[in-house]
Amino acid sequence: MKEITYEPVLRAMARLKELSADPETRRMAEERENFLRMHEADSKQGVHGDHDQKKEK
Questions:
Q1: How far is CA 27 from the centre of its chain?
Q2: Contact 26/19 with Cβ under 8 angstroms?
Q3: What pTM was estimated for this model as a whole?
Q4: How many CB atoms lie within 10 A of CB 47?
Q5: Structural contact between residues 51 and 57, judged by C-beta atoms closer than 8 angstroms
Q6: Which is nearest to 30 in space by CA: 52, 38, 14?
Q7: How far apart are the first and last CA of the chain?
Q8: Burial 11-35 (b: 16+ CB within 10 A, else e)
Q9: What is the pLDDT of residues 1-28, one digit of tens each?
């Protein structure tokens, strides 16, 4: 693999390593990923909650 030398990419990679080392941040990212995955599956099946529809009066 080619060595990365572009400074913005190196900074971003360092920040990702910091975040992934923090258990609480990793847990929150996993929860967000699971929510997005479930929401996408629901959307494909046509399942919508009240929060997705405008309430008529």
A1: 11
A2: yes
A3: 0.52
A4: 11
A5: no
A6: 38
A7: 60
A8: eeeeeeeeeeeeeeeeeeeeeeeee
A9: 789 999 999 999 999 999 889 999 999 9
